[in-house]
């Protein structure tokens, strides 16, 4: 009896352990699948969050791949070459998933009314701690490699796939996405006609000299909940110089840029703001800037939803499109 019992015990124990191993393996698989599904939902949104005209794509280039979502307005018929606006999210955001640039900017509703295509790239997981674009990294600031090459590749692919107008491709960005947008404008001026930076800095912000008394601290966003006016002023000066150089190769104010400033007082619970335009002698406005009083590190506008929106600010999405709609590559 004892021998039989012991024998049965020896025969059964491996089966019990085997069943436990299978149970643990099944549990681990279920947890992995659940984690993967949850991560995908956060990063790329749930299927039911896609609206009419939304389509997901992947661009594959020499430097890797880039996921993005395209929103096509109702008037897209495949025959008319529509403009394109690429909207690049900031840190702690996604392109079209959780806390997305899509929800923050509400560009889709504007695109449906005005007739342009919107592109929302989303940062790849694990490329940064909080889903930032690496716009302060020198390796990500050059043409032909890294994030700039991938994002420019996305823009070109959208033009090809949707028959869009290659002369009217524009880029806007928020925070680290604003940094990426500025880099794209500097490194791919043959792809992007205009750039809009919201709560971002100048090209090569990380390379600002620490011994320069007017320098912007490269880590200002880590220490402050808002972007100081100095950053916006430097960005305006940066692009004014670029336009001057492009004109005749010299920093000589050959464009005779005239500056005009208009202050809009606070009204109906909104923030006061200052609008400044810089117009060349020929009449073309080359730069438009807004300094918003009392706004945090956010995308301003009355329609956005998300963690980084400010409904009391001017409608940045409408302002960006109004500016972009006037220009095309020559």
UniProtKB/TrEMBL annotation:
Species for this entry: Mycolicibacterium diernhoferi
Taxonomic lineage of the native organism: Bacteria, Bacillati, Actinomycetota, Actinomycetes, Mycobacteriales
Gene Ontology terms for molecular function: hydrolase activity
Keyword Cytoplasm appears in the UniProt entry: no
Highest taxon in the source lineage: Bacteria
Protein name from the UniProt record: Esterase
Signal peptide: 1-40
Key words, A-Z: Hydrolase, Signal
Keyword Metal-binding: no
Alphabetical list of Pfam families matching this protein: Esterase_PHB (PF10503)
Cited PANTHER family: BLL1128 PROTEIN, UNNAMED PRODUCT-RELATED
Record-level GO cellular component terms: extracellular region
């Amino acid at each position: 009896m004892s021998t039989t019992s012991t024998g049965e015990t020896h025969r059964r124990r491996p089966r019990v352990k085997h069943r436990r191993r299978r149970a643990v393996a099944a549990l681990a698989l279920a947890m992995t699948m659940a984690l993967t599904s949850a991560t995908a939902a956060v990063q790329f949104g749930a299927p039911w969050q896609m609206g009419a005209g939304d389509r997901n794509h992947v661009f594959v280039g020499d430097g890797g791949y880039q996921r993005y979502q395209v929103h096509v307005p109702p008037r897209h018929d495949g025959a008319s070459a529509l403009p394109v606006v690429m909207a690049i999210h900031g840190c702690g955001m996604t392109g079209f998933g959780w806390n997305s640039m899509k929800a923050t900017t509400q560009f889709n509703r504007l695109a449906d009314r005005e007739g342009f295509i919107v592109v929302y790239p989303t940062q790849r997981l694990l490329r940064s701690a909080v889903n930032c674009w690496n716009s302060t990294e020198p390796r990500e600031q050059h043409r032909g490699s890294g994030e700039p090459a991938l994002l420019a590749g996305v823009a070109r692919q959208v033009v090809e796939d949707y028959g869009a107008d290659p002369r009217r491709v524009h880029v806007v960005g928020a925070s680290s996405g604003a940094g990426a947008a500025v880099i794209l404008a500097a490194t791919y001026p043959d792809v992007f006609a205009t750039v809009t930076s919201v709560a971002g800095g100048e090209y090569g912000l990380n390379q600002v000299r620490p011994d320069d008394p007017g320098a912007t601290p490269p880590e200002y966003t880590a220490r402050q909940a808002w972007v100081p006016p100095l950053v916006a002023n430097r960005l305006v000066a940066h692009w004014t110089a670029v336009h001057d150089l492009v004109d005749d190769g010299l920093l000589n104010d050959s464009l005779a840029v005239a500056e005009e400033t208009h202050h809009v007082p606070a009204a109906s619970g909104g923030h006061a703001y200052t609008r400044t335009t810089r117009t060349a002698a020929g009449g073309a406005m080359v730069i438009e800037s807004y300094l918003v009083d009392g706004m945090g590190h956010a995308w301003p506008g009355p329609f956005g939803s998300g963690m980084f929106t400010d409904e009391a600010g001017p409608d940045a999405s409408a302002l960006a499109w109004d500016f972009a709609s006037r220009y095309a590559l020559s």
